[in-house]
Amino acid sequence: MKTVLYEPNQPVALATKHGKERAISRPLRAGLGFRIVVPENLDTDVLGTFSGEIERQGNPREAALAKARLGMKETGLAFGLANEGSFGPYPSSLFIPADYELLVFVDDASGFQVFEQILTTETNFAHTKISSFDELADFLPRIGFPSHAVIARPNSVGDGSEYQIIYKGLQSPEAVRQAVESCLDVSDDGLVHVETDMRAHYNPKRMRVIRRLAVKLARRLQTECPSCLTPGFGIADRKLGLRCEMCGLPTHLACAEIHACPKCDFQKEFPLPNAPQQADARFCQFCNP
Ligand SMILES: [Zn+2]
Ligand SMILES: [Zn+2]
Fold first, then answer.
1. 3-state SS class at 213
2. Which three-class secondary structure state does DSSP give residue 198?
3. Which of 17, 57, 98, 179 is deepest in the core (most CB within 10 A)?
4. Quick one: 33 and 141 in the same domain?
């Protein structure tokens, strides 16, 4: 018999003003019966913005949690969700851009919070500096414009106020051209900074990643802790130390997944899916220093 984790149609606050319910509602309704409630008049920008006008507070986990709590406060619900994306180079290869997405679910009724995450190179995250609109001829098609919008701001206006002059959500060549012209008027180095608009409602590629993340979170919430039955049991860490095939010493490669409960201390090790039993001696500090 399967335990019923949540009441059908359980209202859950989703703190977003960028239409993320389009990606998150269905997977969580299908998987858990959640009814997603998006609070109106939610100003998540007070928690920081992508485009840099307001600096984000804390690390992505803290930012996601603060956002979820904001939505719960606004709706008076004991359950909340929030997503936070970060963009930058992929950890193992500095020239490939990556999208790191976090989704947090807070359950104040049972007293736990659980995070799910995706790190993917499936992103159009990019920026460029130009001195005329025509220089965007390669950049715009490459980032998927116009279905994916861009942001423009003067590269420098001398007094450090370049972040206050900003044109966001640009989705037509004419809008981009006008924004570039306006930025050039005030740019003191003759350059305009143009970047991909990473807000979910202006970035279908990101919206798809968030949807995949919501499916992952739904699966995790369907898994109960074997010890205390709290939902959200799942991968929390990787255990390093896969043994070398030649000498048997531990390497820095992962040898197991550690699954943990979001509420109690229960943990369990699982073998890595599709992983070798032993490490290739190439990765051994002793055999191949
Ligand atoms: Zn070895
Ligand atoms: Zn537990």
1. helix
2. coil
3. 179
4. no
Report the b/e string of 155-175 with b at 16+ CB within 10 A.
Answer: bbbeeeebbebbbbebeeeeb
Ligand closest to the CA atom of residue 231: 2
Q: Are residues 116 and 42 in the same domain?
A: yes
Cα of 250 vs centre of ligand 1, distance in Å, is 8
Q: Which residue has the tokens 């679910």?
A: 105
**CA distance linking residue 69 with residue 171, whole number of Å:** 32
Residue 4, domain member (yes or no): no
Whether residue 191 is found in the same domain as residue 215: no
Statement to judge: residues 80 and 216 lie in one domain: yes
- 100-139 per-position pLDDT tens digit: 999 999 999 999 999 999 999 999 999 999 999 999 999 9
The tokens 């980032």 sit on which residue?
143
Q: Distance, CA 156 to ligand 2 centroid (Å)? A: 52
Q: Is residue 75 part of a domain?
A: yes
Q: What is the mean pLDDT of residues 153-157?
A: 90
For residue 87, CA distances in Å to 35, 121, 187 come to 29, 10, 26
Q: End-to-end alpha-carbon separation of the chain, Å?
A: 53
Segments in the chain forming alpha helices (H): 21-32, 60-75, 139-142, 173-186, 204-221
Task: Place 51 in a pLDDT band, splitting at 50, 70 and 90.
Answer: low
User: What is the pTM assigned to this prediction?
Assistant: 0.89
Asked, for residue 167, whether it belongs to a domain, the answer is yes
Question: Using an 8 Å Cβ cutoff, are 193 and 136 in contact?
Answer: no
Note residues around ion ligand 2 (Cβ under 5 angstroms).
225, 227-228, 230, 261, 263-264, 266
**Distance between Cα 282 and ligand 1 center (Å):** 8
Taking the C-alpha atoms of residue 81 and residue 37, their distance in angstroms, rounded to an integer, is 10
Range of the domain at 74: 11-123+200-222
Q: Report the alpha-carbon distance of residue 205 to residue 85 in Å, rounded.
A: 13
CATH number at residue 77: 3.40.50.10150
Whether 178 is covered by a domain: the verdict is: yes
